[in-house]
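Now for a concrete sample entry.
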Amino acid sequence: MSFYEVFLIAVGLAMDAFAVSVCKGLKMRKVDFKYTLIIAFFFGFFQAAMPTIGWLAGRQFESYINSVDHWIAFILLAFIGGKMVWDALHEDGADDSAIVYDFKEITMLAVATSIDALAVGVSFAFLEVSIIPSASAIGIITFLLSIVGVMIGNRFGMKFKTKAEVAGGIILILIGLKILLEGLNIINF
């Protein structure tokens, strides 16, 4: 597999993480670079780790992975998206300028957005793709796009805070629904 093909796969896999990063940026009053790097690291790490795990699992677990990955991603993204909508509509007016480093939420988001990379790793094993450079490229591209996503979300979010947070939550739910419908072979984007 050529670098160009791996690059396109990496960008495709990173799009969910990019969209979620935009949503995380919506909630920031101003860009917190430390938190932005943490978000990007988690997304990049899991996007690199999942294809590696999938590659290692290979054929013997393919049917099990493919049968539940879309459900897991849907549940996690729908839950977090629903929580974002709820929080935006039920704000108590408190000052939210302090960033709360919620590693549990970031981990759940990183796992949810990288589950499809697990199946890609399985297919990499079948295609005998060298996993270390491929997974590294996927992780680095996801890391960079996540940083860009947070910054874009922050720019947009400060102008339309509550509406943007509701929209961000709905986007997460829709991403989860898209993953579920693709996994059930109802749609194919």
Q: What stands out?
A: The mean pLDDT is 82. The chain has one domain: 3-94+101-183. The helical segments are 3-26, 33-57, 62-89, 103-126, 131-159, 161-183.
